[in-house]
Amino acid sequence: MIYKRSSELFASAQKVIPGGVNSPVRAFKAVGGDPVFIKEAKGAYIYDEDGNQLIDYINSWGPLILGHAHPPVIDALVERAEKGTSFGTPTELETKIAELAVKMVPNIDKIRMVNSGTEACMSAVRLARGFSGKEKIIKFAGCYHGHSDSFLIQAGSGAVTFGTPNSPGVTQGTAKDTLLATYNDLESVKQLIEANKDEIACLIIEPVPGNMGCIPPKEGFLQGLRELCDANNILLIFDEVMTGFRLAPGGVQQRLGINADIVCFGKVIGGGLPVGAFAARDEIMDYLAPVGSVYQAGTLSGNPLAMAAGLAMLQELNDRPAIYESIDKKTEYLHNGMEKVLEENNIAHTINRMGSMISVHFSEEPVVDFASAANAASNGKFNTFFHSLLENGIYIAPSAFETWFITEALSYEDLDKTIAAVGKAAKAL
Ligand SMILES: *Cc1c(COP(=O)(O)O)cnc(C)c1O
């Protein structure tokens, strides 16, 4: 494939945008080469500026669970845009999407809309601190909760890909309030709680991480966290920015039957527009201004365009629950197909999957936490794999630490093409 125009566009972009991208994960820095510039997309396919058609497994990093330019979402957007894009006043749309979200997701009474997953997680932690009167938080190495200061400590995919797990610019004062645990390791959490008795406001976690590849929780791990939080008066925050409305209509809480105290959303909830949200039971949410004293705000929060796209997306998912079974089956099919061709070619690998999230790691060791994900990524095989797939029209994230997102738009023919490309890539490894 030829990527001439993409490379020219990248050269121009680098002159006026740092690194030529508005979010570091879009650069190909980890895998080498120039990023592909996309012109348009429809369903399972993206089309780049050189006219190449690619089968897309990024899907805007998760939001587009029904594929690109999904008609009900686009129709809702077009209809709303003509009536004005933002008023800075309450609108009925905001209540409608909130009602639907509260109906779909277990354990939440109220939800507040923001503009990104970063904002959702940042605000959720402020709320937890305000509610509990305590200051420290626990996060897990390799989990990503957006780019606000408290979270840029061992922050998974983007941050790790570029070798800045602890970003300059985060003060030591902030960093000292973020305690770091190991995913799938309850003992690491117990030790932190023991050493910081009565100081921990909340524990924030990707209940099924997708930012160090996809990592399913070990049996009893999330339940164990729930019990530790209850016993020590710590709020449990599920960052479901990636998993919310994806692993089930009610996210991981519903799929695995574990209750969180505060839940963060992003990605799917915006239907491809910039939306985040955080939600909890009344008792907690009523600490937020203007009812309570924890301040949180946003000029464009809940704007009608974003709400129209989000509402159309949630309505589709709520009305057609069979979608979940369908995307899970497609993901399983892809998993089995890739497993087969990698085995035929004697490539050491581990494939992790839950629902419609899947990741391929080039190591035989189980990938259960950040250390094992990093170990599997360290042999550099992923880069060869990535470029071989791209050469054959398959677009996965340019990092060994990212999940592939399966959408309902993918056909079994697309999956077969992908498996064939993985077989070719295996020969190149
Ligand atoms: C993407 C992501 C975020 C950040 O969301 P943005 O909209 O990029 O700010 C937070 N948490 C998780 C789990 C994510 O996957």
Automatic annotation (TrEMBL):
Catalytic activity: (S)-4-amino-5-oxopentanoate = 5-aminolevulinate
Pathways per UniProt: Porphyrin-containing compound metabolism; protoporphyrin-IX biosynthesis; 5-aminolevulinate from L-glutamyl-tRNA(Glu): step 2/2
EC number annotated for this UniProt entry: 5.4.3.8
N6-(pyridoxal phosphate)lysine PTM sites in chain numbering: 267
Keyword Isomerase recorded: yes
Top-level EC class as recorded in UniProt: isomerase
UniProt cross-references to Pfam families, sorted A to Z: Aminotran_3
Principal location: cytoplasm
Cell compartments where the protein resides: Cytoplasm
Gene Ontology MF: a single term: glutamate-1-semialdehyde 2,1-aminomutase activity
InterPro entries for this protein: 4pyrrol_synth_GluAld_NH2Trfase, Aminotrans_3, Aminotrans_3_PPA_site, PyrdxlP-dep_Trfase, PyrdxlP-dep_Trfase_major, PyrdxlP-dep_Trfase_small
Keywords for the protein's UniProt record, in alphabetical order: Cytoplasm, Isomerase, Porphyrin biosynthesis, Pyridoxal phosphate
Source organism superkingdom: Bacteria
Cofactor(s) in the UniProt record: pyridoxal 5'-phosphate
Family of the protein in this entry: Belongs to the class-III pyridoxal-phosphate-dependent aminotransferase family. HemL subfamily.
Subunit structure: Homodimer.
Full protein name: Glutamate-1-semialdehyde 2,1-aminomutase
Organism whose genome encodes this protein: Autumnicola tepida
